[in-house]
Amino acid sequence: MAEAAKLPVIDLSSPDRFATANSIRQACVEYGFFYLVNHGVEEELLSRVFEESSKFFSLPLDEKMKLPRKEHRGYTPLHAENLDPSSGSKGDSKEGFYIGPLEKNANLNQWPSEEDLPSWRLTLEAYYNKVMSAAKRLVSLIALALNLDEHYFEKVGALDNPQGFLRLLHYPGDLGNPEEEIFGASAHSDYGMITLLATDGVPGLQVCREKFKEPRIWENVSHMPGAFIVNIGDMTERWTNCLFRSTLHRVMPTGQERYSLAFFLDPNPDCIVQCLESCCSESFPQRFPPICSGDYLQERLRVTYGSESEG
Ligand SMILES: O=C(O)CCC(=O)C(=O)O
Ligand SMILES: [Fe+2]
């Protein structure tokens, strides 16, 4: 039986920003995961989003398949991806729906028909905007936590055109049969800057703090009502030269149906992610070459979703 992870709790609205930044630093160095409270997204809105999500996933498969993932927006059916190709499983037992940036001009999002789901788009757009603004507030505290100016990431242009992707997830919870290993989401780390996750109270999420140690030790992440579970992604791990960890995590099936909402914040596609000065020294040299954020993400998505060229 996995133990419970004791993740730190960060208060986004605390007036003591330096103390909060310090706690964030400690949380990111030790766990790469923490709870975020007082983030400004009301529980009432969160529960409406979960309701809309459940309505969408209850539509017949052929309705959902009318909105297949294109330009990284839309529906991904069960077993469409395998986050850990080394696991040899037939693909993760989850279905999802991606919503990308709500740009006025180039909005590539796909929406279910208003006839089927009349309040869907408005509810999801409201949630997207609120979670994006919480994520941006958190990024400025992360800058402080790295001994940088709190506007550092804005100043280097990372947030001029941030790539926020909201993903609704539905896990049927099936346990498979004894011969086949099945995961809700197999072991992975997230690709981008940070992820803000809302869960519905059904267990399943686990983290592994030491990704290079065998055997892997998994700890359960409990649901905290109203809080986001935040984790550092690989791009921040690169930016910080591994000072902040992008922690391995997975979702185990429990036999219970489960819903979650993951918001992935990635920088501007043309932002160059390069080791921060505050994170390297002569005795701790830069570990990764600079990369262009958009190219890096495209490549990670290509590996996850197979050889299709669009991300
Ligand atoms: O559903 C969850 O709790 C986690 C989802 C996740 O890790 C992901 O989509 O990257
Ligand atoms: Fe993840």
TrEMBL record:
Organism: Jatropha curcas (Barbados nut)
Fe2OG dioxygenase domain segment(s): 161-267
Similarity section: Belongs to the iron/ascorbate-dependent oxidoreductase family.
GO MF annotation terms: dioxygenase activity; metal ion binding
UniProt-recorded name of the protein: Fe2OG dioxygenase domain-containing protein
Gene3D superfamilies recorded: B-lactam Antibiotic, Isopenicillin N Synthase, Chain
Keywords per UniProt: Iron, Metal-binding, Oxidoreductase
Keyword Metal-binding: yes
Pfam families attached to this UniProt entry: 2OG-FeII_Oxy (PF03171), DIOX_N (PF14226)
